[in-house]
Sequence to fold (347 residues):
Amino acid sequence: MGKIDVKSKNVDELKEFLTTELQEKGFRATQIFKWLHDKNVITFADMRNLSHNLQTKLEQSSHITTLDTVTRHQAKDGTIKYLFQLEDGQTIESVYLPYADGRQSICISSQVGCGMGCSFCATAIGGFIRNLTPAEIVEQVYAVQRDLSVRITNVVLMGMGEPLLNYDSVIKAIRLLNDPLGTNIGIRKITLSTCGIVPQIRQLSKEDLQLVLAISLHAPNDALRNQLMPINRKYPLVELISACSEYTKITRRRITFEYAVIAGVNDLPEHAEQLVRLIKGLLCHVNLIPINPVEGFEFGRPSGVNLQGFMEIISNNGIEVSIREERGTDIDAACGQLRRRNEEVKS
Ligand code: SF4
Fold:
């Protein structure tokens, strides 16, 4: 039998494991959880308040998931993009983003690769490989905390993969990150971004998690969204917006609509007007993202004039809208680019 993945377990599960499998006292679960998720140690020998006997039992029965850094690129603005290697040799990307107001944010991955096939995304090129475990998801935060000696304040699940298609592990990871005994990241400081998996959006609304839900919308009508995001053929806009509306009613939380603005594709005034008609009346905010150019894709950045005009049409209709600050444009900042480059170098 394989070793137990202790970093994927919450305190109750650790307690169950310790008392039934290792015949230890239940209070040890809290100590071990704190070492893993608060003090961020990576060996049982470093858990100094455990007896040598318990450390040995843990070493024989259990495993602490860690990530190896393959590459680490720092941009002029302080953004750092990591390519991490998992224990089976697969690679994922995470991006550290420091802000002038003190926020220490990280964008993390939920899957190796992605099967959603969005036409503007470098991650989509290699397809879906596998889901990450809860430990592999939270370890991206902890690896960066260890590397930079910082305390991460904000987490965005917007890296590689579709989080809602790795639902159980992602929800578990969010609860681990939010646990007051662990790294204790505020639930409202955690953003989950989805391309629009309707049944799981409805499921998420019942989790009693006050996180920020972001929907990657990117197109204001089905014809265009079908082209950009194949998932729209399965869950068209009418179904997606209905699930979003239900989500806001149940959670009373505002949804963020992410809209990657692509020159000549979805940045025309008529697109802004369609977008207004689609989401008007919903408790929401629109985040416009001038697209990062990706090598091998023909999509380009919108001009400043188009972007400004697009934003004005939305805000003049009473919908909150902002333009996302550009980060790390000098280091392959778009999701999937670093991993793709690494695969090309290896082949
Ligand atoms: S944009 Fe997100 S959902 Fe779409 S292919 Fe890329 S990683 Fe997957």
